[in-house]
Amino acid sequence: MMTQRIELMDTTLRDGEQTSGVSYTATEKLHISRLLLEDVKVNRIEIASARVSVGELEAVRKITEWGRKNNRIEQIEVLAFIDGKLSIDWIKDAGATVVNLLSKGSMKHLEGQLRKTPEAHVGDIRKFIDTADRLGMSVNIYLEDWSNGMRNSKDYVYYLIDSLTDTPVRRFMLPDTLGILSPDEVFRFCNEICSRYPDIHFDFHAHNDYDFAVANSLAAVKAGIKGIHTTVNGLGERAGNAPLASVVAALKDHTETDLSVNEEKLTILSKMVETFSGVRIPANKPVVGENVFTQACGVHADGDSKDKLYYNDLLPKRFGRVRKYALGKTSGKSNILKNLEELGISLDPEDLQRVTNRVIELGDRKESVTVEDLPYIISDVLQSKNIKQKIQVRNYSLNVAKGLKSVATLCLEIDGQRYEETSSGDGQYDAFMNALRKICKPLKIELPKLTDYIVTIPPGGLTDALVETVISWQAGEKELKTRGLDPDQTVSAIRATVKMLNIFYDYTSN
């Protein structure tokens, strides 16, 4: 089967900017344009609509000036309207040379919005094309609402194209403006139109209202369409457009097509657009989402270790990513081992099982455990395994209220006997320690002196991050440090204190 060359036209800076709440500065538009054309290497970009604002004019001038200096001016396109010479003059003044003219691709839009006959509309379009041609500008033409046109007024669509085949229009662009088509319809309509006009370059422009944008783009290519429109991260009106990264991956892996795109730069581009647009990338978004190359299930990690059993063609390296193995309640030893390999740490089987159990325990209480958490967990587990658990905290309650002292109720079990006390203090941990002293005093257990208290949060900046508390204790000439680990800072301090109790009690008992 012969490989088909497909053009990708990205319209993040025009159609994508129609996302509610999104507006780019001139400098941001320039940065995105350069990344799209120079690094990602899409074939064309649509950067603005004519006559929108003074700021838009400045942005187009910046981009076209850069494009002219770097021999890319023909890859930069601006949307125009049938408004006499107003759009053409605006685009000419902005320095662009390629115009994407918006025409009506369905009788419903033609009659309902323009209130014109097909003949009058064709006449207006031809005048626009003649004017642009005299000014040395290239013209592509959008058939707005083409999808409804093919469903309900196909004769009009063919009349429009037939009437313009003798003009210098470079490309006819077929939008599913309202995102109504299914992949079957896209294939049928595109195949019909490509067969009827084999010498015309057609683009397909998908919207994602039914979540069909990527599937529809594939169907269009399989039907003979030569160009596909995308936006970075699928930005656009309503449910957005076809996401660039997803379209690239799907076309490369599921069609016999030749694309110019550098896949490794797609993630960088997506992150830049996320930053500039303020629209977050969903964690599970294909190709560029945070979680898409992360295995959470221990069975999957085990299969990957043995024979890459859970790999597919979407290898993370293609997109400048790395495969990760999540730590949490579904983790198994294989997930832990994969992360330990990354950290250069090895554990014996018993310690590995202890660490796995601790990760699962923590995963039950928070969404995920990060790789950065792992050394803290290992340290906590290794210290804990050597401590005899003669003293255990069975229950506790901690209360804090503005303007009032904190209150703690503690139930402690010592050698099988339970003791309970309540006390207040300056903060939850102080209240806990005061309740502990009330239990220990009648038992003639002298607690060591707290000499230092250090709290560390592993990197990541998340509010559910694990907290490590290291407490230094002094009992006569004996000094010791104990560690506690927990998502809650006070609980991590309590864990460190319980370790101290068992170490100190074992020491004094002997």
User: What class do helices, strands and sheet pairing give?
Assistant: alpha/beta
Report the CATH C-level class of the largest domain: Alpha Beta
The CATH topology of the largest domain, please? TIM Barrel
Measured as a percent range, the helix fraction is 40-55%
* CA-based shape: elongated
Q: Count of helical segments?
A: 17
Notes on the structure:
This protein is α/β, with parallel strands linked by helices. It folds into 3 domains: 271 residues, Alpha-Beta Barrel (TIM Barrel), CATH 3.20.20; 91 residues, no CATH class; 119 residues, Alpha-isopropylmalate synthase LeuA, regulatory domain (Double Stranded RNA Binding Domain), CATH 3.30.160. 41% of the residues lie in helices and 21% in strands. Helix 6 crosses helix 7. About 3% of the residues have low confidence.
